[in-house]
Design brief:
Blueprint: H1 2-18, H2 33-59, H3 69-86, H4 91-96, H5 104-121, H6 125-150, H7 170-188, H8 195-215, H9 218-238, H10 243-266, H11 270-273, H12 278-282, H13 286-289, H14 293-307, H15 318-324, H16 343-371, H17 379-396, H18 403-420, H19 425-428, H20 431-434, H21 439-476, H22 483-495, H23 501-517, H24 523-543, H25 548-560, H26 564-577, H27 582-594, H28 598-611, H29 616-629, H30 632-639, H31 644-649, H32 651-659, H33 663-676, H34 681-693, H35 697-710, H36 715-725
Helix pairs in contact: 1-2, 1-5, 2-5, 2-21, 3-5, 3-16, 5-18, 6-7, 6-8, 7-8, 7-9, 7-17, 7-18, 9-10, 9-17, 14-16, 16-17, 16-18, 21-22, 22-23, 22-24, 23-24, 24-25, 25-26, 25-27, 26-27, 27-28, 28-29, 29-30, 32-33, 33-34, 34-35, 35-36
């Protein structure tokens, strides 16, 4: 039995020690590789180690979970989220989430299991030190990778200059680094550490700080600064014995004050404005906030909370609130928000008041054990942990959590639980801790049952969705066997019947568009893609009939394939679910344009415009509708609002004039474009094509000849165009 126990013990510990390296998992052969790879890895590892842990706990009562208010808050939070998800507007998505997020109740339950296993296995300070040191070491590796990104030796995955490590998102990397910077600081002030160890912590903390700066994530950086200020203030006012530490805290506050004050004084200089990082901070202000999605989204969330105040809408269902309360002033920005970009509003929506309070109870319990009278923590340790909590809370005001930040937070919860909760002798005399099970019961009853449930859990929770994910990537990628193989792969995705079906349908529709417009693809294959896409989008709408997103997908799908009556049917339903979203009216207007019903087209475009007359996009689509209907009064009104450069550069104006046969307007736009960009061959070829369409062949040939004269290398291609113009 001892050998079996050791195998279980070290297997569980091995699994726990793998978790700090999950951030490095980026499987390129998966859809949303920065999210799904990490998500599936965490789920599978947690399920396996929890199963092994259960068997171990039956063998040895030492590993049975100990209760604390932190543990109670974790269990309460998990339970309330489950209830909210079950009774939410889309329970299936609330429970399972999707590939893009990999959250839902599945994640929350796995975090609770991780907490239980880690607090039971790391039941001493030294064990937690080893685990947290591994996290710090992993962050050092991540920051080194960030240095390679800064040097151009590794790709910044989200584009631009903001370092994102292997997270694919600079914001996700930033809060990960904030956690580890505070952990470095926590161990740095530990007087029991050797001098060389302190140098290591200081070096890693500084390296993480440098990379944090280059993530240019304002919420995380300001949270770090605020957290450090709080650490300094607590230490200055409460530290009575360690005078050296008080002096350091005074210095820290002074340095932060100088840095912040100095930045404010130079925020408008060229140096700051040209810096991709500092310029993001210099632009902070109410005027910028008013142009951000959060300015419009947060009031929508409050309205959604008022509608379902007790248990909310269930996780992953903010899109229903967003669509129902959409603010027309957001037209031209992201049209399908699935998060409020504020963790507290997110939980108000996901779990109502009970959900938010249970979430906040995690922080309340954590701070209680940090600061309670019986705490064995030193003041410096208390202040640093409090600063970490404050930084994390501030960061979460502006963003939402992700898998790795959740893991870091639950690790801190587990750490404080384990070092703060002393064993209760009366509790340990209860049957839960004193009960012993015979070897036969463990070997022949407990172990087989747990192993069976673990295997089934790992399979049904992960494997179908994981294989479907990999198959989806293959279906979206050109296949050597031809486009028919892509079609077969899409069909195969649905055989796994996973939570990835919705995203598979979205991708299938996009591929169906491309296939339909591609030359060289047999008509029967185009029809197969059309029929499968039609079937799947209609199935999706049937599953979630009140989701405006998929109603619009269905309407747009039918519009692209010229099935305008079907498109109108779905788009009118979408308007019922999201009555203030201009993009739906614009799509509906396109349906009526396809039917040649210009009056109804104009009517819908006008509705879109009336919802937000100051929106540039609203003005453009209203002007386009006026061009189609030759409404000179509206055109005159819009000409005062839309600048001439927009008309010249927005291809929709060119296409609209061409569609109504106003080729003189087309030529005028093209000539002006050529004047502004005389080396653009595409403009000149479009001009030649327009002359040819008007029957002015000689002018078309003159344009081509002029292009040949300007660029002799174009002669062979130009001669071919001239032959086509002459009908040869």
């Amino acid at each position: 039995m001892q050998t079996f126990k050791n195998i279980l013990k070290y297997s569980v510990l091995a699994g726990l020690f793998i978790i700090p390296f999950i951030p490095f998992i980026v499987p390129q052969a998966m859809f949303f590789p920065f999210i799904t790879g990490k998500g599936f890895a965490f789920r599978i590892i947690t399920e396996i180690i929890f199963g092994l842990f259960v068997i171990l706990a039956f063998i040895d009562s030492e590993y049975r979970p100990k209760m604390s208010w932190i543990t109670k808050s974790v269990l309460l939070f998990t339970f309330i989220v489950l209830v909210a998800d079950i009774f939410g507007v889309n329970p299936y998505k609330s429970l399972w989430s999707n590939y893009e997020r990999m959250e839902g109740f599945v994640l929350i339950s796995h975090l609770a299991l991780f907490y239980i296993v880690s607090t039971s296995m790391f039941n001493s300070f030294s064990k937690w030190v080893n685990y947290l040191n591994l996290n710090i070491g992993a962050s050092a590796l991540m920051s080194i990778y960030g240095l390679f990104q800064l040097a151009g030796k590794a790709t910044i995955n989200q584009g631009g200059v903001r370092v994102d490590g292997t997270f694919g998102n600079a914001t996700y990397l930033a809060i990960y680094l904030v956690f580890n910077i505070f952990l470095c600081l926590y161990f740095l002030v530990d007087s029991s550490k050797a001098k060389w160890q302190r140098w290591v912590y200081a070096s890693i903390g500084l390296l993480d700080l440098i990379i944090l700066y280059y993530t240019a994530t304002r919420g995380a950086i300001l949270g770090l600064i605020g957290g450090l200020v709080l650490v300094g203030i607590i230490t200055v006012f409460k530290e009575k014995e360690n005078l050296a530490l008080r002096k350091i805290s005074y210095s820290l506050l002074a340095i932060i004050l100088v840095i912040v004050g100095g930045f404010i004084s130079v925020r408008n200089t060229d140096f700051v404005q040209k810096s991709p990082v500092l310029s993001r901070f210099s632009s902070l202000g109410f005027s910028e906030i008013k142009n951000q999605g959060r300015y419009f989204v947060w009031p929508m969330a409050i309205k959604g909370f008022k509608e379902n105040p007790v248990l909310g809408w269930g996780q992953e269902n903010f899109n229903f609130v967003f669509n129902k309360n959409y603010d027309p002033r957001m037209y031209g920005q992201e049209q399908w928000f699935d998060r409020t970009h504020d963790i507290f509003l997110d939980w108000l929506i996901a779990g109502g008041l009970l959900g938010l309070l249970s979430y906040l109870s995690l922080y309340a319990a954590l701070l209680y054990y940090i600061w309670r009278k019986e705490s064995q923590l030193k003041l410096s340790e208390k202040s640093i942990l409090t600063g970490l909590v404050a930084a994390y809370l501030f960061h979460n005001i502006f963003v939402f959590d992700n898998l790795i930040s959740y893991i870091m937070f639950f690790s801190v919860l587990g750490f404080v639980h384990s070092i703060s909760v002393n064993r209760n002798p009366s509790l340990e005399q209860s049957s839960f801790y004193t009960k012993r099970f015979s070897d036969d019961v463990v070997y022949y009853v407990v172990a087989p049952i747990v192993i069976i449930f673990t295997v089934l859990g790992v399979y049904f929770v992960n494997i179908p969705a994981l294989i479907a994910n990999q198959t989806l990537i293959q279906a979206m990628t050109p296949q050597s066997a031809g486009i028919t193989e892509n079609f077969n792969l899409f069909k195969k995705v649905y055989t796994y019947d996973s939570f990835g079906n919705s995203e598979a349908t979205e991708q299938l529709i996009q591929i169906a568009y491309q296939v339909n417009g591609a030359s060289g693809v047999p008509d029967n294959v185009k029809q197969q893609f059309y029929e499968l896409a039609k079937l799947k989008i209609e199935e999706k709408v049937a599953q979630t009939p009140n989701d405006a997103r998929y109603l619009v997908f269905a309407g747009s799908f039918y519009n692209r394939f010229g099935q305008y009556d079907d498109a109108i049917k779905y788009l009118e339903r979408a308007i019922v679910e999201s009555p203030n979203k201009q993009s739906i009216y614009a799509e509906l207007g396109s349906s009526y344009l396809g039917k040649k019903d210009l009056n109804k087209m104009f009517e819908n475009m006008k509705r879109a415009y009336d919802l937000a007359p100051n929106s540039k996009e609203s003005q453009i689509i209203y002007a386009l509708a006026a061009i189609y209907t030759k409404n000179t009064a509206v055109l005159s009104e819009m000409s005062k609002k839309i600048d001439q450069q927009t008309i010249l550069t927005d291809n929709r104006f060119l296409q609209t004039y061409a569609a109504i046969g106003d080729y003189n307007a087309v030529i005028s736009i093209l000539l002006t474009r050529i004047q502004q960009d005389p080396n653009n061959k595409d403009y000149k070829l479009s001009l030649a094509s327009t002359y040819y369409t008007m029957g002015q062949k000689q002018k078309a040939i003159d344009v081509i000849n002029a292009m040949i004269k300007e660029d002799p290398s174009f002669k062979e291609q130009g001669d071919q165009y001239i032959k086509q113009i002459n009908g040869n």
